[in-house]
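Good morning,

Attaching, inline, the backbone tokens for the sequence recovery test we're adding to the shared suite. The designed sequence is right after.
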């Protein structure tokens, strides 16, 4: 939802969401940005945090904590809790991932979740549910693309690098039991997707196939909301499917296009 941002005029939003007989019950439990001001619903009205009623506005969008002051986020959390409001999905309590100094240094990729050993089939399942494309790594002579999520509203594609090992046995179901996490990168949505052999770490955009390699997008130029939501996805993959963290692996899968 956050990665498919929408903006409504106030009157349209009020009719389609706030006053809708079904959707309204969800809308009133969320926070909204009206012309740059955060509002919630309390005592039968839209209100700012100090309690001032809001009856009109110009542009409305769904509120996200990225870019907000920590004091503001915490204050709204307390307010919602005091009103006994359970949000339909994490919003005020949503995890936020901001660019770190280490990521500014690596510039084009994040190692924040590198060097994790993941249960492949569990990772594949949760990644698919989150809108990612991933190909199971099998003990066959074939190529596999990266795990990717296309972000058409931003003209971007996110990539999470995972690899498998030829010397490991498969499972009773198709594919290797484990894969190994690496870098997170962003590319223009129409850039070629890097591939690697099913049990090789050397991801690359294959020039022998007539592909012109494209440089990854510097992380500092990725919209903060996009960066946060993609890192949140990968954090979830790791939390759900990790077996262990293996620090000696460093960056994880090696790149053929450094």
């Amino acid at each position: 939802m956050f990665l498919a941002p929408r903006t409504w005029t106030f009157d349209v939003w009020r009719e389609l969401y706030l006053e809708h007989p079904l959707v309204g019950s969800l809308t009133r439990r969320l926070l909204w940005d009206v012309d740059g001001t955060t509002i919630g619903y309390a005592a039968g009205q839209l209100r700012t945090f100090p309690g001032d009623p809001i009856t009109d506005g110009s542009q409305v969008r769904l509120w996200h904590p990225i870019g907000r002051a920590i004091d503001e986020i915490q204050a709204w959390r307390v307010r919602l809790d005091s009103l006994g409001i359970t949000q339909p999905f994490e919003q005020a309590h949503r995890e936020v991932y901001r660019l770190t100094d280490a990521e500014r240094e690596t510039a084009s990729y994040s190692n924040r979740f590198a060097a994790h050993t993941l249960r492949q089939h569990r990772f594949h399942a949760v990644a698919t549910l989150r809108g990612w494309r991933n190909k199971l790594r099998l003990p066959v002579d074939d190529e596999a693309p990266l795990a990717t999520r296309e972000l058409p509203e931003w003209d971007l594609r996110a990539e999470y690098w995972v690899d498998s090992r030829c010397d490991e046995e498969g499972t009773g179901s198709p594919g290797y039991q484990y894969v190994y996490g690496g870098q997170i990168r962003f590319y223009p949505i129409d850039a070629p997707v890097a591939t690697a052999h099913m049990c090789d770490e050397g991801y690359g955009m294959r020039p022998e196939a007539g592909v012109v390699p494209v440089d990854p997008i510097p992380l500092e130029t990725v919209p903060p909301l996009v960066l946060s939501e993609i890192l949140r996805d990968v954090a979830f993959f790791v939390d759900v499917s990790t077996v262990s963290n293996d620090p000696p692996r460093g960056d994880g899968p090696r790149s053929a296009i450094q």
